[in-house]
Design goal:
Elements (H helix, E strand, L loop, with lengths): L8 H12 L7 H9 L3 H25 L5 H9 L1 H33 L6 H18 L1 H24 L18 H14 L6 H4 L9 H34 L3 H7 L11 H30 L6 H16 L4 H30 L10
Helix pairs in contact: 1-7, 1-10, 2-10, 3-8, 3-10, 3-14, 4-5, 5-6, 5-12, 5-13, 5-14, 6-12, 6-13, 7-12, 8-14, 12-13
């Protein structure tokens, strides 16, 4: 393991913001309009609110066991056998999420910029880069994220502002006419989308000022919800529900309409270049959590021993879906898994930990 307490709450803010506004934002509008129509913004807000409550539980539990990840303190709370199963459940989620994120990245890049490049080559190059930065440790990932995140967030805002003249609020009507069961499915989907906040259970011990994490993580979630809601509304207001549901990458189509005067057009190449950084950050953080988790489950002293093995596994898993439709089917499985992880896991471990005194902290 790298030494604990090596990243700051500010870096955690940028890491969470990038994770929550990263890879899935490209296909989220499409999925939500198919489930909840124009009311996708409502289910995003509802999912964000529930996720904020879960964040409170995550921070509360983590503070009871300073210096330990969830894989390390779960056996203390649940017993050795159940604790290891619980830890494995989360580690598998990190691994699965990293693999799906890799594949979404490859599909988008191939369709938008590199249609003739073999998918395996694109994935292999990214895997090599991720393995390199993971080997260097979480501190390097955090610094890279802190450096690029302000530029990425600024670009996301400019994409929306640059398309205001194409948006029509009429396309966002009627409001809250979606059947209740569809709204519920949409809320579950948004919960699984925000389920990536569960990485805090692995990253908490590495933060040098953990007492600030509750506020920091809630602000990051607020930013992420605001951005995702804005992109959903902007996409539907521009293309309408029907067209948004037909597009593979609605946000990319939104970027293609961006114009800066008469000189700069077709800005999707620039956007995708920066989005590559988002994908790199997301996969790096998720891969670090997966590798660290497997290392702790197997009780190894150094996570670097597993890096190549886990990265190879991620490559195989990311190549598994045959095409985009199969990938979207796999993405639906992630909704179920992510819902359980986001809602059930924090509540369960919080309730069980009430009967455990925890450990003293000097933070």
């Amino acid at each position: 393991m790298i030494k604990r307490g090596t990243i700051s709450p500010r870096q955690i803010f940028f890491i969470l913001t990038m994770l929550l506004t990263g890879i899935y934002i490209l296909i989220l509008p499409r999925h939500l309009v198919l489930v909840a129509g124009v009311d996708g913004w409502f289910v995003l807000l509802a999912g964000g609110l529930v996720s904020a409550i879960m964040l409170f539980f995550i921070n509360r539990v983590s503070r009871k066991f300073p210096g330990k990840t969830v894989v390390e303190f779960a056996p203390l709370v649940l017993g050795s056998f159940l604790g290891r199963i619980f830890g494995a459940f989360l580690v598998i989620y990190y691994t699965f999420l990293a693999a799906v994120s890799l594949r979404i990245f490859a599909e988008m890049l191939k369709s938008a910029l590199l249609p003739d490049t073999p998918r395996g080559l694109v994935l292999t190059v990214l895997i090599v880069l991720v393995a390199w930065i993971v080997q260097n440790g979480l501190e390097d990932i955090a610094r890279f994220t802190e450096l690029l995140s302000p530029l990425i967030l600024l670009l996301l805002v400019l994409v929306l502002l640059g398309n205001l003249n194409h948006m029509d609020l009429i396309r966002l009507r009627p409001v809250l006419q979606t059947p209740p069961l569809d709204l519920l499915e949409g809320v579950i989907s948004s919960l699984s989308y925000f389920g990536v906040i569960i990485v805090l259970l692995m990253l908490y011990p590495y933060v040098n000022a953990p007492k600030k994490l509750t506020t920091t993580s809630l602000v990051a979630l607020f930013f992420a919800v605001s951005i995702t809601v804005a992109f959903f509304l902007g996409t539907v207001a521009t293309f309408g529900v029907y067209e948004t549901g037909r597009m593979a990458w609605p946000v990319i189509e939104l970027v293609k309409m961006e114009r800066i005067g008469e000189l700069l057009e077709r800005l999707e190449a620039f956007f995708l270049s920066l989005w590559l950084s988002i994908a790199f950050i997301n996969v790096s953080v998720l891969s670090f959590c997966a590798i660290s988790g497997w290392t702790q489950l197997l009780k190894l002293k150094n996570y670097r021993k597993l890096t190549l093995i886990i990265m190879g596994l991620l490559l195989v898993l990311s190549l598994w879906p045959k095409d985009l439709l199969a990938l979207l089917g796999l993405y639906k499985i992630n909704f179920i898994y992510g819902f359980v992880v986001t809602l059930v896991v924090p509540l369960f471990i919080m309730v069980v930990s009430l009967f455990h005194k925890g450990e003293k902290t000097n933070a």
